[in-house]
Write a structure and sequence with these properties.
By secondary structure, this protein is mainly alpha-helical. The protein has two domains: 75 residues, Arc Repressor Mutant, subunit A (Orthogonal Bundle), CATH 1.10.10; 158 residues, Four Helix Bundle (Hemerythrin (Met), subunit A), CATH 1.20.120. Helix content is 64%, strand content 4%. A three-stranded antiparallel sheet has the order 1-3-2. It is elongated, with a radius of gyration of 24 Å. The chain starts with 26 loop residues before the first helix and ends in a 12-residue tail after the last helix. The C terminus is likely disordered.
């Protein structure tokens, strides 16, 4: 099978003027920057073949070592997929939500996201996901949400299990929104939340949370987007305010 020729994308992208590439240690950064620019401005698509290291070295008028360094940097950022073998070469990578969540979560951790920042973000995102879920949730997604509510009720006496189910309910609501950007953002925030909140809870708190989650699901199942959003907003506001009390420091089961 004949391999397609790498696409020529114009002087500002993968067909640069030799004068646009600086020599020395900065050459690989210049190559990487131009490939990244081509991705954004020239319509490079997932799976698109860019060529081999030798192809790119010739087009950019640099050494293969320079191309290898540029490719390594872009591969680390998730843009380029390096394939070996008879059909090998460099391709634009496919989207990977899990990689996005992992990278976003790590950066939030490195930033030292505060509890207030965390809840402000959750309050901005989760009422929206609840409203969208009311409009878009499939029968299978509604069943999954109901199953989580039922399991939570059964796990009220087991704080650790209840906590995991409570967190899963919120993520399942985001899944049911069928918005990939919101779903990934919330997943990254949930990982950060576990730093600020712990597994301690009481039967009273667990019973209240189970009721609140059931109420949110009721609005979603009724396709009432405004009510679903309002119930989620009220729930998160209550959790945030409870955490501000001096004697309450770890409330993950209240989510």
């Amino acid at each position: 099978m004949t391999r397609p020729s790498p696409r020529r994308l114009g002087a500002t992208a993968l067909s640069p003027s030799p004068t646009t590439i600086r020599r020395g240690a900065r050459a690989s950064a210049d190559v990487a920057a131009q490939i990244l620019q081509a991705f954004y401005s020239d319509g490079l698509q997932p799976g698109e073949w860019l060529g081999t290291e030798a192809n790119l070295a010739e087009r950019f008028n640099v050494s293969r070592v320079t191309i290898r360094d540029a490719v390594s940097a872009l591969a680390a950022r998730g843009l380029i997929d390096v394939r070996v073998g008879a059909r090998g070469g460099l391709r634009i990578a496919s989207g990977d939500p899990d990689r996005l969540i992992d990278a976003f979560s790590i950066q939030l951790r490195l930033m030292g996201l505060s509890r207030d920042e965390l809840f402000e973000a959750m309050l901005a995102i989760e009422p929206v996901t609840a409203g969208l879920a009311a409009e878009r949730a499939t029968p299978a997604e509604l069943c999954a949400l109901q199953d989580l509510v039922d399991q939570s009720r059964a796990a009220i006496e087991t704080p650790e299990a209840f906590t995991g189910l409570a967190v899963s309910f919120h993520q399942a609501v985001a899944e049911a929104s069928n918005n990939r950007a919101l779903r990934a953002s919330l997943a990254a925030l949930r990982a950060t939340q576990l730093e600020h909140l712990g597994a301690e809870t009481t039967r009273t708190i667990a019973e209240r949370v189970a009721r609140v989650h059931a109420g949110i699901l009721e609005a979603i199942a009724a396709h009432d987007a405004d009510e679903a959003a309002a119930r989620m907003r009220s729930h998160l506001a209550a959790v945030s305010h409870a955490g501000e009390q001096p004697h309450v420091t770890r409330l993950v089961a209240s989510v």
